[in-house]
Write a structure and sequence with these properties.
By secondary structure, the protein is of the alpha+beta class. About 40% of the residues lie in helices and about 25% in strands. It is built from 18 helices and 24 strands. Strands 8, 9, 10, 11, 14 and 15 form a six-stranded mixed beta sheet that branches. Strands 4-3-2-1-5 form a five-stranded antiparallel beta sheet, with helices on one face. The chain has a five-stranded antiparallel beta sheet with strand order 22-21-20-23-24.
Length: about 675
């Protein structure tokens, strides 16, 4: 039991605080004490920091004991404020020994310090925590290096506390709508919260952000996002995935300056065949503003000579230039419901590089001579000079098809080539396409259209033909190339009615993933022995790379890239392209969910694709949107069944869509 027993005042530490107590008895090897807050506890002697006889009787009334304890605690707290901890440390800092509170008190008060003064020293050193290490009943002076290190640490902690508290107070006021002055470090606070919303546990200052938001009462993700909206930092429909991927919708001044220079540079027509006599036409969507492909046709006795003319971007954008580096970093243009983010600045993508109606442009022209069975009998690839005579949309081309001989011939050639591909094993699994448009007032419009209209089929087949023939040319001339290949599916593909959505979805799952290789290999779903992409150099960086290989060889300079350099480009650019595709897909889905949220309580048609043990996979056919139902809500549904579903709950920010069958 040591030297403590009934009638002693003892002090111990509980929850990081000194507690003053009076011993009223013993219980086995422990002290029975009453604390200054009128709690009765049993205490191991080892927990006592300091103690002394009180001169009070253990039988004294509880009220008197509590009053005495309160008085003692107040006296000791007052004495502790007089203790010069730094002076004490200076006196013993060179001694590496354990010192009791009594020994230290005798150094500070040499004339027999009282029990209150002994306690005061213990309290002061414990509270300071800078110059002494507390072992439970003794104090060990720290070295000067240790004190300097702890002093610096404490300054950092105090600065951290001030920053966190200030940021939390500001954000809480913003959330509650209270007037508050903006802090000087406003931008740093906003960056902190933005990073937390975007990256969560991967945020660079995760703990600081959590501390700020916890204290501000904004720890929930929806609140931390909403406070940024209230501050005008983000829009309520902010594209977070694009921000995470750091895809900018702006170009730096250096890039814009180089684009301006390129857009005004003179065109070198040397070595180009003049094809301005051809009737060249562009066929694109109504919203298209960048035109990188155009078509021409010549009817032959044995078939057709179909021309595909691609804007020669390689002639304008030098490898390694500022524009080229930025294009490689972006990888592709993004076409989002509310915005278009080009790979190259608009002054080029919609101006100098684009095959605009009535404008002369350098191009790469691919001519394929097809017989009536769609077989390629002969083809040519050449550098050219073209001028687009007509600009058509898919809709106007479909309308003019019956009366325009050139469009009729193009369509017949395209159909013949498609039939030839089918005979080679191509798979035709068309699905409708959905276009989502959002205007400045956030009005959402969803248009669903068939991919297989004559004009769309015409353009698609012409592009497949041109890419196939360029792949053949590069292979025949031993020019390194990035080929797009696809292995045969693991199971046999079944074709059927073009309108059979269920069949097409189920069969598409069997297709293998397209791979980018530097050696030629078949593309199974297209039915061609080799294939590349070169027809969209304004929009896709891989197409620009392949175009450089082609134009360099056609112009006698040789290919720009070695096989190894092409492989390196694939490793660098392909993840960026996939990332852009994911951003586009998620944004498309977000706005459809936003529209569905406006139709809560209404019904929408759906096609059941699969019934699993817990979830039923369905396709909302008006929007071509994949989603799911809980199995117990849709237990009687069968694959292939068409059902109406009621829109129950939608949260586009959380990608939440709850539907239920209409009974």
């Amino acid at each position: 039991m040591g030297s403590y027993g009934p009638g002693h005042i003892v002090e111990f530490i509980d929850k990081n605080q000194f507690i003053c107590a009076f011993c009223v008895g013993l219980k086995k090897d422990r002290l029975r004490v009453v604390t200054e807050t009128n709690r009765e506890v049993t205490l191991a002697p080892g927990r006592v920091v300091c103690g002394s006889p009180s001169g009070w009787s253990a039988e004294a009334p509880r009220e008197r004991i509590l009053a005495k304890l309160k008085e003692a605690a107040e006296n000791r707290a007052a004495w502790s404020e007089q203790v010069d901890v730094e002076l004490l440390w200076d006196l013993v800092s060179d001694e590496d020994e354990r010192l009791t509170p009594s020994e230290l008190a005798e150094l500070f008060w040499p004339k027999a310090p009282s029990a209150d003064q002994v306690s005061a020293v213990a309290r002061a050193l414990f509270e300071d925590r800078l110059r002494f290490r507390f072992t439970g009943q003794e104090f060990i002076p720290l070295s000067r290096d240790q004190v300097e290190q702890k002093t610096l640490q404490r300054r950092c902690e105090l600065a951290y506390e001030a920053e966190v508290s200030g940021a939390a107070e500001w954000l809480a006021a913003v959330w509650e709508g209270r007037p508050v002055a903006e802090p000087e470090d406003r931008d740093q606070i906003l960056r902190l919260i933005m990073d937390w919303v975007l990256y969560g546990d991967e945020a660079p200052q995760k703990k600081r952000a959590q501390d700020v938001l916890d204290r501000a009462g904004l720890a929930k993700p929806d609140r931390s996002f909403e406070v940024l909206v209230r501050l005008g930092v983000w829009d309520e429909d902010e594209d977070l995935e694009r921000l995470r991927c750091q895809i900018s919708d702006e170009f730096s001044p250096a890039i814009l300056d180089e684009a301006a220079s390129v857009s005004t540079a003179a065109t070198d027509w040397t070595g180009r065949e003049d094809l301005r006599n051809l009737d060249v036409v562009t066929i694109d969507g109504a919203l298209t503003t960048d035109y990188d492909d155009a078509l021409s046709i010549e009817v032959l006795d044995s078939g057709w000579r179909l021309g595909v003319h691609i804007a020669d971007v390689a002639a304008m954008i030098e490898p390694g230039s500022v524009l080229d580096i930025e294009a490689s970093r972006r990888g592709t243009s993004l076409y989002l419901p509310e915005a278009r983010i080009p790979m190259l600045p608009e002054t080029l993508s919609e101006g100098r590089l684009s095959l605009l109606e009535g404008q002369e442009r350098p191009a790469v022209s691919v001519f394929g001579e097809l017989d009536r069975a769609g077989r390629v009998r002969h083809f040519e690839v050449k550098l050219s000079r073209v001028r687009v005579g007509r600009r058509l949309t898919y809709d106007t081309a479909d309308q003019d098809l019956a009366t325009d001989p050139d469009l009729q011939a193009m369509y017949e050639a395209a159909r013949a080539f498609r039939d030839w591909r089918g005979a080679q094993g191509a798979f035709f699994l068309p699905l409708p396409e959905v276009q989502v448009q959002v205007d400045r007032d956030k009005n959402i419009e969803v248009k669903k259209y068939a991919r297989e209209t004559p004009a769309r089929q015409l353009v698609a087949e012409a592009m497949i033909l041109a890419n196939y023939l360029v792949a053949c040319w590069l292979e025949d001339n031993d020019v390194p190339c990035i080929y797009r290949t696809q292995s045969m599916p693991g199971s046999e593909i079944v074709t059927g009615d073009e309108e059979d959505l269920f069949l097409h979805f189920s069969q598409r799952r069997l297709l293998q993933r397209v791979e980018l290789l530097t050696s030629p290999a078949p593309h199974s779903s297209l039915g061609v022995p080799n294939y590349t992409h070169f027809t969209s150099p304004i929009r896709r960086y891989f197409d620009l790379i392949v175009q450089r290989q082609l134009t360099g060889s056609l112009g006698g300079r040789g290919p720009v890239y070695s096989t190894e350099e092409l492989a390196e480009n694939v490793v660098y650019v392909e993840p960026l392209v996939r990332q852009a595709a994911r951003v586009t897909q998620l944004r498309h889905r977000y706005w459809i969910l936003k529209l569905l949220g406006q139709k809560k309580g209404q019904t929408t048609p759906a096609l059941v694709l699969d019934v699993g043990p817990r979830r039923v996979s369905v396709l909302l056919t008006d929007y071509m949107l994949l989603t799911g139902l809980r199995r117990h809500d849709a237990d009687k549904l069968q694959p292939g069944q068409e059902v109406p579903l009621k829109i129950k709950k939608v949260n586009p920010r959380e990608d939440l869509l709850q539907l239920e069958p209409v009974h």
